[in-house]
């Protein structure tokens, strides 16, 4: 608020300074014009009037005298002096009279041809005098533009003085014209008309100029107009205009005009001196104004500097406090609030959106209140978004739980139907339906993961790695393309077994989807220093380096789930599961083309199990559903025959058991037994199924 008086003072000082500086510039420009162009034009006008008078005498006598030649030389020097004066005035000052000067130079250039016509006797006497009058008129046009004073009273008096000077010029024109007619004792019709025009213009200009002068400057002219000399001139002028003949006594006309011209020149000098004195007083007043304005301006500048420094320091302090509060809000409070909301914590909006406390001017407090409003809006928006995410997650969870319950019932029904079915074709269809249901269960668990909850499946004891991989392969639609290579014997914590199965299944399914259908997906594992690594390699097109980097960032730090980004749903589920158990998942380009997904299970989840064979884990193997074991038989073999399994000797044994000494070698049979046909294998599986079903029924009939 302190800036308003300061700005007003500075603006007022600037206005006054502009006015005074404008007056000062006008005085400087006017002084320059008067010293250069003004003096030169006055001298040239005097010389032209004198040359015109000598020319009139020559036109009367028809003789070119030395007096006329000398006067022409003085006129030429005056013309050159005017050109020099214009150059000295410079472009800034001469700009005020540029228009009249542009008309004067052509008129002065015609002076030579006018003299030549007069000397040769070409043209009329009136035409020669009129040519001089035209040049003098151009000079008066320049002289009228030399006045640059801004004082209105001085401008009015100067204009009236110029009018009186122009009237003096018309008297000189009358004198020259009559002088031509005295020699012939008559005036031509055109000369009488010109004389009448000159007389009328003279009377008009005297009346106009006298009306414009104030009392002091008018008094000398009033005394002159009342004198006998002027009255005699007026009488002669009227008689010549009426009769059209010049005075018979030429000497009386000449004497009267000489006395009148001398008195007019004297009164003009007196009036000019008075006007100059007034102009000097105005200039002094302007200088005083400049000094006062400069002093006031200096004081205003010093005051503005002092006030600005003090106000700036206070404003800087207030802005610093506001900046600190804003930085705390944007860099600490709001991020902490958003992090708490992401964790599912309850937030008190009134407590968290407390007002920003700053002190200072009204503008600073208004900005602080605006920041507080922004803060409340941001907190409410964050709380609303968190509530919306929780609501969406709850919807996912409810739908997934309901779907999961139905799927478990469906799996139980399918299991019972498989046990009671002896027809191989129907049993195959039930297996396919069982496979679809297993995949649906994984999708339901994905919804549970997206909701932020954990699936309900878990085991108390460690589960072998090979069983987890087999179970993951069994949950993939195109599981026949997956080749599981030999893995070191190990096991994972039972609490994380379900999530690990889900994670590996998502990566395997992603590999089968984004690779050609005629290629295989290889799954291998190995114990490393930091835990256990599982690699899933496909032969697809792969991704660009930028896409690999973005995907790995998402897998390392899973963001909030975006409902619009459903194309990457599987990778998002992988990232959530990996974050839950501290598992590292990374994608990279395979050396053979395609993508390799690396899953690094931390050592805390790995349990060492020596001499553990696939399928011989006892209770641990029992943790994997029987339908998973049935379908896994199709993915750990070295090859298939028309989609059915082909057994490989010791394919499921651990390396130690495979290398252990066996029974003494038997002599080779002379004939190799024939390979079973697919129908025989199917009948064998059906018989195995019926035998296990009868054993369960007998066990249930015996009772506990």
Condensed summary:
The protein has 704 residues and is mainly alpha-helical. Helix content is 70%, strand content 6%.
Fold and architecture overview:
This protein is mainly α and 704 residues long. Helix content is 70%, strand content 6%. It is built from 21 helices and 10 strands. The chain has a 5-stranded mixed sheet. Helix 9 (228-243) crosses helix 10. The longest helix has 93 residues, at 250-342. The chain starts with a helix and ends with a helix.
Q: How would you sum up the global shape?
A: rod-shaped
> What's the arrangement of strands in the largest beta sheet?
2-4-5-7-6
**The biggest beta sheet, please?**
5 strands, mixed
What share of residues is helical? Answer: 55-70%
Low-confidence stretches: 1-20, 611-672
Beta-strand content bin: 5-15%
Mean of all residue-level pLDDT scores: 74
Count of individual beta strands = 10
Q: Structural class given helices, strands, pairing?
A: mainly alpha
Radius of gyration: 60 Å
Instruction: Note the total helix count.
Output: 21
Termini separation comes to 96 Å
Protein name: histidine kinase
Keywords: Kinase, Phosphoprotein, Transferase
Domain Histidine kinase/HSP90-like ATPase: 495-605
EC number: 2.7.13.3
């Amino acid at each position: 608020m302190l800036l308003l008086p300061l700005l007003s003072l500075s603006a007022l000082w600037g206005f006054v300074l502009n006015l005074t500086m404008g007056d000062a510039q006008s005085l400087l420009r006017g002084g320059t014009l008067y010293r250069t162009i003004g003096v030169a034009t006055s001298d040239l006008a005097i010389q032209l009037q004198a040359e015109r008078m000598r020319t009139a005498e020559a036109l009367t006598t028809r003789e070119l005298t030395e007096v006329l030649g000398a006067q022409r030389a003085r006129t030429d020097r005056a013309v050159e002096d005017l050109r020099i004066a214009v150059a000295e005035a410079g472009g800034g000052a001469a700009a005020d009279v540029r228009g009249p000067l542009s008309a004067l130079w052509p008129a002065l250039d015609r002076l030579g041809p006018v003299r030549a016509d007069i000397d040769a006797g070409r043209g009329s006497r009136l035409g020669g005098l009129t040519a001089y009058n035209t040049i003098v008129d151009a000079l008066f046009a320049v002289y009228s533009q030399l006045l640059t004073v801004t004082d209105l009273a001085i401008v009015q008096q100067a204009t009236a003085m110029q009018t009186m000077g122009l009237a003096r010029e018309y008297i000189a024109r009358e004198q020259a014209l009559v002088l031509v007619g005295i020699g012939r004792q008559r005036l031509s019709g055109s000369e009488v008309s010109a004389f009448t025009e000159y007389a009328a213009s003279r009377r008009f200009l005297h009346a106009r100029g006298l009306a414009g002068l104030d009392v002091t400057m008018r008094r000398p002219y009033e005394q002159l107009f009342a004198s006998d000399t002027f009255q005699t001139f007026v009488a002669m002028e009227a008689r010549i205009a009426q009769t059209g003949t010049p005075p018979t006594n030429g000497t009386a006309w000449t004497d009267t005009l000489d006395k009148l011209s001398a008195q007019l020149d004297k009164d003009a000098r007196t009036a000019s001196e008075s006007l100059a004195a007034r102009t000097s007083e105005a200039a002094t007043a302007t200088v005083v104004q400049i000094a006062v304005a400069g002093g006031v301006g200096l004081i205003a500048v010093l005051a503005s500097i002092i006030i600005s420094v003090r106000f700036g320091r206070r404003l800087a302090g207030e802005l610093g406090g506001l900046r600190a509060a804003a930085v705390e809000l944007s860099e600490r409070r709001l991020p902490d609030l958003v992090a708490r909301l992401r964790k599912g914590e309850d937030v008190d909006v009134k407590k968290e959106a407390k007002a920003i406390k700053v002190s200072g001017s009204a503008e600073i407090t208004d900005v602080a209140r605006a920041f507080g409003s922004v803060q409340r809006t941001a907190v409410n928006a964050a709380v609303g978004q968190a509530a919306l995410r929780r609501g969406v997650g709850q919807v996912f969870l409810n739908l997934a739980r309901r779907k999961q319950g139905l799927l478990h019932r469906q799996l139980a029904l399918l299991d019972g139907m498989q046990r009671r079915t002896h027809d191989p074709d129907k049993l195959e269809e039930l297996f396919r339906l069982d496979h679809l249901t297993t995949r649906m269960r994984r999708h339901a668990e994905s919804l549970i993961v997206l909701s932020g909850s954990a699936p309900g499946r878990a085991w108390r004891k460690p589960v072998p790695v090979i069983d987890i991989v087999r179970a993951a392969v069994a949950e993939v639609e195109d599981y026949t393309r997956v080749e599981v290579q030999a893995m070191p014997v190990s096991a994972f914590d039972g609490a994380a077994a379900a999530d690990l199965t889900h994670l590996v299944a998502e990566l395997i399914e992603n590999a089968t989807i984004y690779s050609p259908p005629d290629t295989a997906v290889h799954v291998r594992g190995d114990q490393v220093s930091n835990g256990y690594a599982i690699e899933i390699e496909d032969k697809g097109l792969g991704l660009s380096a930028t896409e690999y980097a973005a995907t790995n960032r998402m897998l390392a730090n899973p963001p909030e789930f975006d409902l619009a980004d459903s194309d990457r749903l599987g990778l998002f589920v992988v990232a959530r599961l990996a974050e839950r158990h501290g598992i590292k998942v990374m994608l990279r380009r395979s050396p053979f083309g395609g993508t390799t997904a690396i899953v690094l299970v931390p050592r805390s989840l790995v349990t060492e199990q020596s001499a553990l064979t696939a399928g011989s884990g006892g209770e641990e193997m029992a943790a994997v559903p029987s339908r998973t074991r049935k379908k896994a038989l199709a993915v750990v073999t070295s090859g298939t025959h028309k989609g059915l399994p082909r057994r490989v000797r010791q394919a499921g044994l651990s390396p130690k058991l495979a290398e252990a000494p066996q029974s003494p070698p038997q002599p080779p049979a002379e004939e190799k037994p024939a390979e079973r046909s697919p129908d025989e294998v199917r009948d064998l599986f059906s018989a195995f199924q019926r035998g296990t079903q009868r054993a369960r029924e007998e066990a249930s009939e015996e009772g506990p």
